Fold each of these.
Amino acid sequence: MNPRHPLTILSLSAILLATAALAAALPPLPPPEATDQKTPVPPVITAPPNAAPSDAIVLFDGSASSLANWESTDRKNPSPRWTLEPATRAMVVAPGAGDLRTKAAFGDIQLHIEWRSPAIVKGKGQGRGNSGVFFMDLYELQVLDSYENPTYVNGQAGAIYKQYPPLVNASRPPGEWQTYDAVFIAPRFNADGTLATPARLTVFHNGVLVQHDMPLRGPTENRGLPRYVRHPAKLPLRLQNHGAGDLVAYRNIWVRELSFPPAPPIPDIPPPPYAPAPPPKKIKK
Ligand code: MG
């Protein structure tokens, strides 16, 4: 192309004119403030290192008084009879003492919980450090000593039991403390009792993402497929007492009840595309 050719100059001029016309037809780029959201202001909390955030509900901190936040599923004796371990501020599954569930009920929560499987390995597969965290008394996040301990993958540590295996096996060796940090969103039911939206679960195991916003297929079942049946909007959190040899310990258990503000309104400004931003002003030296 010869840039000095009259036709070339004409076509370049046409392109420039067309671009200018297009820009003139577009709405101007809104100022930054047009998309600033001022309310609601997020509440201020404190989040100290290695401690519960200030807006958390501490369910167990090693004290006898916090053990009183729980009750046994043993109807004949609902007192929480798991063993306190003062040196580690933990409680340990006590054979024959039933599962423990909170006296309080919860719906959508963030959960932090620390657990430890027995240092001395006995048994294998599902018989080795088996316990579980049941959200809403119904939906199990599996606790198992899965360190070099093969079993069915949707039953290993970090699995949503019999529904989803964890993305990775982030297990620490037997006897070491491990953490679960989870976000559980309760299922919603329609007025006629049918399922509106399933429960959803996100889990970090020892800080590693193992479940991401997984839609649960229903309450945990060991045999057969799960099926949703309408239940209250809030139910207790439950810890499983699996078997006589599964002496799992728990400590530092807290939850934050979650509520989600409605989606912010879309600002009352024209949608893109916008006219190009004016060139920045030159700063005089
Ligand atoms: Mg279990």
Note: The domain at 57-257 is CATH 2.60.120.560 (Jelly Rolls).
Amino acid sequence: MSVTTFKKAQAVSQSENKAQKQTQGKIVIAVDGPSASGKGTLARKMAERLGYAYLDTGALYRAVALATLELGGDPAKFKDVEPALEIVKNNLTPELLENEALRSYEVSEAASRIAALPQVRIGLLEYQRDFARNPPGDVGGAVLDGRDIGTIVCPDADVKFFVTASAEERSRRRFEELKNSRPNLTQEKVLEDIQQRDQRDSNRKAAPSIAAADACIIDTTKLTSDEVLEEVVNLVRSRFLTESDISPSEG
Ligand code: CDP
């Protein structure tokens, strides 16, 4: 595979971007895409390789969903979600976003519902933008993954990727992740859920999940995560980094 296999929705002037970076410093990389497309793994590994900070924005929605369920609220009603949103906003730490409980099937479902509430999206926006502008630690940039990073959260991101895969392949991957913790689950049920969540994500009025016009679209249906990683890291490096920007551990 080569970078040319990435479909580009709109050409971006590399020299323009490079010049801009020389004056502004930190690089922002947006990674969007549907459920189980591989965007999270890609974004996390990309951040590791480039030595950038990483934010899984889905974990923010998941944290609000978990808190709503713990308070006995209905994830589709903002009046029930509001107290959970306040708790999460006041306690946002990296540990909170790494909580294993955020990954459960119930929380995934609830997160998809609360993410459709415009007040929740607005409530979480500033944290995400601050993270992109001032990533924690002495790093050269930030990688954020989600559904609306390239369109709403960071429309001026330096590089945007939209990672996708067929619904069948995504349900196969998600089923592999869940089958041990939920022995009664079938791949058909996971496919059905993924299709419903795609529907909700793409059709909701607030920040529907769509590729930014200037995003590189990566279809991972037939690619391994390592193949995709090499290509995107090379693309980012060739666009923005000089030899001295690359950390020694990268070789
Ligand atoms: O990839 P997966 O759907 O399993 O989960 P996620 O990326 O952790 O996102 C959890 C839920 O939050 C999704 O169902 C999305 O609807 C929502 N989300 C969003 O609306 N906007 C984001 N920037 C990130 C996640």
Note: The first helix runs from residue 14 to 24.
